[in-house]
Design brief:
Helix content: over 70%
Shape: globular
Low-confidence stretches: 48-65
Mean pLDDT: 77
Radius of gyration: 26 Å
Structural class: mainly alpha
Strand content: under 5%
Largest sheet: none
Length: about 350
């Protein structure tokens, strides 16, 4: 097992380098970089991304490498900006230097904020972690009992109409579902039940402990529901199919033939085997909600978390923040994949990944 874990850890290195290299290469062809952003602000014409989206070309570079947005600005100023942002070096040298720093977990500072990337991520992380954690727990609390009930009643009217609801919920895009919740329950057009944005009220610090808990969940209700919807549908079907597969196996028929009660057969034999794939997927599901679900949820509900941070970094071309968060997220995702495999072994020691070729 130790050799298997070591192989998987070593495999993370080239995978991580490949992810960073592909994104770094693509970024080189994206117009409106950090230098253009500063030049556009100096010119007083808005951001470079505004110019590009508006169809203009002032935020781009000419064929001879000159910035069109730099008309009237001294070349020394432009050269100084390029040195500050590190664009005075060739792309290959910049990439190698970036990966060397990231290997030592030296992520530098944001281009446009006087704060280190680590401090910035730590500042935003609690919002995303709480959303991911509560959404994952809620998805499991709903999906496992519902999936088991659907498996036991496979083909019944209950199974049919709950499947219809699940398919409809899965088909609704997360952004559209979030807007629907706002329209219905956040004062959009109908009821003003939940607040529109944020995770706490203005006087949160003055509330009692019980008041703080109530205020938090009052604000977090709609974002958590939005983040849960896609994971809930997928996990319910996974649970149902896993239990159906186990129920139809030979050992279940043998246990029934021996006279064991349905309760003993189901919870003594089927439950443990069927829950193997469901429980082992907890780390991956949490990270999936944490990363992919946070962007839409945080942007729509104005939550100051990692999803909103990444979105703003991409819009403002804050490449330091963008690549640092990409590196951290990719590393966490690869480690969670390994953790998921180890969870299989923890649940069922009969599984031996050490004998597999990776």
């Amino acid at each position: 097992m130790g050799a298997y874990i070591l192989r998987r850890l070593l495999l993370i290195i080239p995978t991580l380098i490949g992810i960073m290299l592909i994104n770094f290469t693509l970024i080189q062809f994206v117009p409106g970089g950090p230098v253009e952003q500063v030049l556009a602000e100096l010119e007083g014409d808005g951001s470079a991304t505004d110019r590009i989206s508006g169809g203009g070309s002032d935020g781009t570079q000419t064929n001879d490498g000159k910035y069109k947005g730099a008309r009237g600005l001294p070349q020394d100023l432009i050269d100084d900006l390029e040195r500050q942002f590190g664009f005075d070096k060739p792309p290959v040298e910049r990439f190698l230097l970036m990966m060397w720093n990231y290997a030592r977990f030296d992520f530098g500072e944001s281009y446009f904020r006087s704060i280190t990337i680590v401090d910035l991520i730590l500042e935003k992380m609690p919002v995303s972690i709480t959303l991911g954690l509560w959404s994952t727990l809620l998805a499991y609390l709903i999906s496992i009992p519902l999936g088991i009930a659907k498996a036991v009643r496979d083909g019944s009217r209950f199974d049919v109409w709950t499947s219809g609801i699940i398919v409809a919920a899965y088909a609704i895009p997360g952004m559209l579902f979030a807007i629907l919740l706002i329209v219905l329950f956040a004062g959009g057009s109908y009821w003003q039940i939940f607040p529109l944005k944020g995770l706490t009220s203005e006087g949160f610090a003055d509330l009692s402990l019980l008041g703080k808990i109530k205020d938090y969940f009052w604000h977090a209700a709609l974002p958590i529901i939005t983040s849960t919807i896609a994971a809930f549908t997928t996990l319910t079907l996974l649970t149902k199919n896993s239990f159906l597969e186990e129920i139809n196996k030979q050992y279940v028929m043998t246990a029934r033939a021996k006279g064991l009660s349905e309760w003993r057969v189901f919870y003594g034999h089927v439950f443990r085997n069927a829950m193997l794939i469901v429980i082992s997927g907890f780390p991956a599901l949490f990270v999936g909600i944490f990363f992919s679900g946070s962007l839409i949820t945080e942007v729509i509900f104005s939550l100051d978390g990692l999803g909103l941070l990444g979105f703003e970094a991409a819009v403002k071309r804050d490449y330091q923040v963008f690549f640092a968060t990409l590196y951290i997220f990719a590393l966490i995702g690869l480690l969670v994949k390994l953790l998921s495999d180890l969870t299989y072994i923890w649940i069922d020691p009969r599984i031996d990944f050490a004998s597999r070729e990776t």
